[in-house]
Design brief:
The complex is a heterodimer.
Chain A: E1 4-13, E2 16-26, E3 31-35, H1 42-50, E4 57-62, E5 65-69, E6 72-73, E7 82-84, H2 96-106, H3 111-124, H4 140-152, E8 158-162, H5 170-187, E9 190-195, H6 198-204, E10 207-212, E11 215-220, H7 222-227, H8 232-237, E12 242-250, E13 253-256, E14 262-264, E15 275-280, E16 285-287, E17 299-310, E18 315-321, E19 324-330, E20 338-343, E21 349-351, H9 359-364
Parallel strand pairs in A: 3-9, 3-10, 7-8, 8-9
Antiparallel strand pairs in A: 1-2, 1-4, 4-5, 5-6, 10-11, 12-13, 12-15, 13-14, 15-21, 16-20, 17-18, 17-20, 18-19
Chain B: H1 25-52, H2 68-75, H3 79-110, H4 116-122, H5 131-142, H6 147-156, H7 166-191, H8 194-202, H9 207-218, H10 220-236, H11 239-245, H12 253-263, H13 269-299, H14 318-344, H15 363-370, H16 372-405, H17 411-419, H18 426-439, H19 444-448, H20 452-477, H21 480-488, H22 493-504, H23 506-522, H24 527-530, H25 538-547, H26 551-581
Helix pairs in contact in B: 1-13, 1-17, 1-18, 2-13, 3-7, 3-10, 5-11, 5-14, 7-10, 7-11, 8-9, 10-13, 12-13, 14-26, 15-16, 15-26, 16-17, 16-20, 16-23, 16-25, 18-20, 20-23, 21-22, 23-26, 25-26
The chains are: A alpha+beta, B mainly alpha.
Chain lengths: ~375, ~575
């Protein structure tokens, strides 16, 4: 299984730049996810790897084979990749077995070997007994697995997955996710996965590339992406986050706009007087039990409980901090009135932008006095 | 996963596709389709334009370019009068067909109407009946010596209408074209959101108020669009002006060309070319305008996946008025003339003065079947329609594939070329191809000229937009991911088409075959220039018999053509249905 090298990839539709200078390398056998909101260019990147889009510039190579470079363009049929589409794209006039046979027939694999490969591939996805059904006779989850079997039957060098789980219902999606991860690990096939679902990306990937508006914003392991997001935008997109605007007042201090209070943050933030956003994950804010005192070196915030909701495994509280609403996760029930919050400086990430959230979302998070 | 084994070679490498002269095979196909369409579309146009500036027939040597033809067109040839007639005829036709069709669409689609579904189905009649046959039918019934006219004259002492006039022509043409307007308006009404009306109802608006304030404004785009379509169709039509206007000397565009090109002893090719060029300019601008409007209109039409079931309004006693009006249109406009024509084919004399039942006869049909020329014209029509339908549908399918499903650089050009014949009046296609064949290299022209192939090319070109238009929506419904899946699996463009899309497009192709067959069977106008004694078709034979005054045989041929169309559509429908059920 070869590595995938994408470098300086750009794609332009007229004046509109869909991809700008994208560079990344996927290691052999790695599960690599392109994550981002719709329109960020992740699907275009995948289509460029597949050969379904022709990039404006840049190069793409898989192992020793160069697919795209200046003057070179290998069409999709010459790349020997496997791909699962969002709609599964099973050919409706062919049975499951015939769907799997098509790529083998195109490759002129002999008849007996075809049957072996089809049976083997369907067994991998656990659908061997459905080989004579037509796609419309299958459930969504079965169709998705047939699509995967079809993409794997001819042993492609790389597997490309374009939001393959997005059409499944929530329950099935989680099971399919776990199953997909096991299958990929078992096969050890280099996999490029496209999704807008950050939970899916975190759960599945060896590494994640976060994209936004045609730019590659951050590449890293799920842990790196979640705990040290490179930009405020990544923090907002991957997982939930409270954003508090403020002004830098010292080496590792920010004065918050909402309360005027000074917060100790991770050192290394920009110079004095800079306007910044402090990002704190809801689960990193701790509600101090009554009668206990705060440990030293930890930020202490006083807030009022607005609403609390029970979401099964834990409680979520909307709290009022000055004129701002913040969210906190806790396993304590029934909190009301004034509470004391603890925030470790290491949980307070500082970003030099103040307009992280769209205006309407910002409006919902403001309380008038 | 981390073992450092050397990269394995692909177990099943994708096939290598041949690239003749370094170009992928789909590129050859794409350029081939583009070239074929360009030759077909330009063949009638370029010689026409060239001829319009040439001082002598274009096959004679030593021609000099000048605008003299255009000057003579308006001075000697009296083309100004023709322009005026055409404008009056087209304007009146459009107005009348809107008056007939718009209210009808509203009451049929949006109100509770007894027999509404029947009326909706009845609006499909022009699919089976050509305007030439309708013209014959109208003359048989409402002409100066028509069945109804004679009866009315006997009762009133005079005839309150004159069919052989511009208003008479316009009424007939409007009857023929009203279903087009109806279709556009009815579709718009069906697709529009019924909750708009519900909202008006909740606000307390009565049915008439809703009609006026909610439904009619919604109809503006389809009205504008179909008006332009009707204008351009009445500008190019030959049948009704030829049958009604020619005897009394009313010339419009098409009959001007017909008279100057066919009936004069030494046709003035320069004037003919200039007139054709001007007419082409008019029709091309109309079609361009129509395309632009449609593009704009689509921007604010919201067709939602969720089907809203429109609640139909109750018009009360007005609905009986509506039923009467619609029945009047269907019965008097189409049923009586066509039924009369069919009846006429079984009698010797057709007049209310003597019961037609007394002269019931099969002689009209006998005559047709005893003369080999007439039988031949039926066979020719069937041949042209059958071969033409296969070729046109095939070419349309390729053109749609290239225009909609390829990354070919000139995909748009392919689409425009395939739709361009919309703007080419049949008679100009005839004249232009006639010149093109006279001009063609390697003696190709003489090989084709006057044969059925000339007709197949001319008719086929005219039917190409319908073929393209009937396949194109089907391909848009096939998800692009199905192609992409095939491409990634190792199929090149050509193989994706043969292995995947061809099978999925089979129903659309069958639909295109039926549509183009019927279209080609009804077509005749290019044949008045392209045909010869050996390549007569039903349409041209009917015209010939009509000029000879042999109306009984015309009626018989017309009835045969209707019967053939109906049988074919019926059989094809059954066949397709059977296959879908299986």
């Amino acid at each position: 299984m070869p590595e995938v090298k994408v470098s300086r990839l750009s794609k332009q539709f007229g004046d509109n730049a869909v991809l700008r200078d994208i560079t990344f390398t996927i290691a052999d056998g790695e599960f690599f996810t392109l994550l981002g909101p719709s329109g960020c260019g992740k699907s275009t990147t995948l289509a460029c790897i597949a050969g379904l889009e022709r990039p404006t510039s840049g190069s793409i190579a898989v192992g020793p084979a160069t697919f795209v470079d200046s003057g070179t363009f290998v069409p999709p049929e010459g790349r020997n990749l496997g791909m699962v589409f969002q709609s599964y794209a099973l050919w409706p006039h062919l049975t499951v077995a015939q769907n799997l046979a098509m790529p083998l027939r195109i490759r002129k694999v002999d008849r007996r070997r075809q049957d072996e490969l089809i049976t083997e591939s369907l067994a991998k996805v656990g659908l061997a007994e459905l080989k004579n059904r037509y796609p419309h006779q299958l459930s969504g989850g079965q169709q998705q697995r047939v699509a995967l079997a079809r993409a794997l039957v001819y042993s492609p060098s790389v597997l490309l997955l374009d939001e393959p789980l997005s059409n499944l219902d929530a329950q099935l999606r989680e099971q399919a996710r776990a199953w997909l991860k096991r299958l990929q690990a078992e096969l050890g096939i280099t996999t490029v996965y496209v999704t807008h679902d950050q939970e899916e990306a975190l759960a599945l990937s060896d590494r994640i590339a976060v994209m936004s508006e045609g730019d590659m914003v951050q590449i890293g392991t799920p842990k790196e992406i979640y705990e040290t997001p490179a930009t405020a935008r990544v923090a907002a997109f991957v997982g939930r986050c409270n954003f508090l605007t403020g002004t830098v007042t010292g080496q590792a201090e920010v004065r918050l706009d909402c309360t005027g209070q000074t917060l100790a943050v991770l050192p290394g933030a920009a110079g004095d007087g800079r306007r910044v956003s402090v990002a704190i994950r809801p689960e990193r804010l701790e509600i101090l039990p009554e009668g206990r005192t705060a440990p030293a070196g930890v930020n202490v915030l006083t807030a009022q409980v607005l609403t609390g909701s029970y979401i099964g495994s834990r409680y979520e509280y909307d709290l009022r901090l000055g004129d701002h609403v913040i969210q906190v996760e806790s396993n304590r029930a029934g909190l009301t009135g004034e509470v004391t919050l603890l925030a470790d400086p290491s949980a307070c990430l500082v970003y030099p932008t103040t307009d992280v959230l769209p205006e309407d979302a910002e409006a919902l998070l403001t309380v008038s006095h | 996963m981390t073992t450092l084994s050397p990269p394995r070679p692909a177990v099943h490498p994708p096939p290598r596709y041949r690239r003749p002269l370094g170009l992928a095979r789909e590129s050859w196909l794409h350029y081939g389709v583009l070239l074929l369409l360009a030759v077909l579309v330009l063949a009638p146009v370029v010689p026409t334009l060239y001829q319009s500036f040439l001082d002598r027939p274009l096959y004679e040597a030593g021609g000099i370019l000048s605008v003299d033809n255009y000057v003579r067109l308006f001075t000697e040839a009296g083309f100004g009068r023709v322009v005026l007639n055409t404008a009056l005829f087209a304007g009146l036709t459009t107005l009348l067909s809107l008056l007939i069709a718009v209210p009808m669409a509203v009451v049929v689609v949006r109100t509770k109407l007894p027999g509404g579904r029947l009326f909706a189905a009845a609006m499909q009649w022009p699919f089976f009946i050509s305007s030439l046959i309708l013209g014959f039918g109208w003359i048989t019934i409402y002409g100066p010596a028509g069945f109804v006219s004679v009866e009315v004259r006997r009762m009133l002492g005079f005839l309150p209408w004159n069919l052989y006039s511009i208003p008479g022509m316009a009424v007939t043409e409007a009857v023929a074209l009203a279903p087009i307007v109806y279709t556009f308006c009815a579709n718009a009404l069906r697709q529009s959101d019924a909750s708009l009306e519900a909202a008006a109802q909740v606000c307390g608006a009565g049915p008439l108020r809703i009609l006026r304030s909610v439904i009619l404004p919604m109809l503006r785009p389809p009205i504008v669009y179909s008006s332009i379509l009707v204008i351009s169709m009445s500008v190019e039509t030959l049948s009704v002006p030829l049958l009604f206007g020619q005897p009394v000397g009313i010339d419009v565009f098409s009959t001007f060309l017909y008279r100057n090109g066919l009936q004069s002893i030494s046709p003035d090719y320069g004037v003919l070319g200039a007139a054709s060029a001007i007419i082409l300019l008019v029709t091309v601008s109309l079609v361009a305008l129509q395309a632009k409007l449609l593009k704009n209109a689509q921007r604010f039409v919201s067709v939602r996946g969720k089907a809203t079931r429109p609640r139909r309004l109750d018009l009360g006693w007005l609905k009986w008025v509506s039923v009467a009006a619609i029945a009047c249109y269907v019965v008097l406009g189409a049923l009586v003339p066509i039924g009369g024509l069919v009846f006429r084919s079984f009698t010797l004399v057709f007049t209310p003065l003597q019961s037609p039942f007394r002269t019931l006869t099969g002689a009209n049909y006998e005559r047709i079947f005893t003369y080999p020329v007439y039988v031949q014209s039926i066979v020719n029509s069937l041949l042209v329609a059958a071969i033409g339908a296969v070729l046109v549908s095939g070419l349309s399918l390729l053109a749609v594939m290239v225009a909609r499903r390829s990354d070919f650089r000139f995909a748009r050009a392919v689409e425009y070329l395939a739709l361009a014949p919309q703007a080419m009046p049949g008679i100009i296609v005839g004249i232009g191809l006639f010149w093109a064949l006279a001009f063609a290299p390697f003696g190709l022209g003489t090989l084709v000229q006057g044969t059925l192939w000339a007709l197949i090319i001319g008719f086929g070109l005219r039917a190409l937009p319908s073929g393209f238009g009937s396949i194109s929506p089907s391909i848009m419904q096939i998800g692009r991911e199905l192609d992409n899946a095939a491409r990634v699996s190792g199929a090149d463009w050509v193989r994706t088409f043969t292995r995947i899309l061809a099978a999925l497009l089979r129903p659309a192709f069958a639909g295109a075959l039926i549509l183009t067959f019927v279209t080609l069977l009804k077509e005749y106008s290019p044949a008045v220039f392209l045909g010869s004694a050996d390549s007569n078709i039903i349409g041209t034979t009917m015209l010939e018999l009509w000029v000879q005054g042999n109306t009984g045989s015309v009626a018989a041929l017309a009835s045969l053509q209707i019967a053939i169309t109906a049988t074919f559509v019926g059989l094809a429908g059954l066949l397709l249905k059977g296959r879908n059920d299986a």
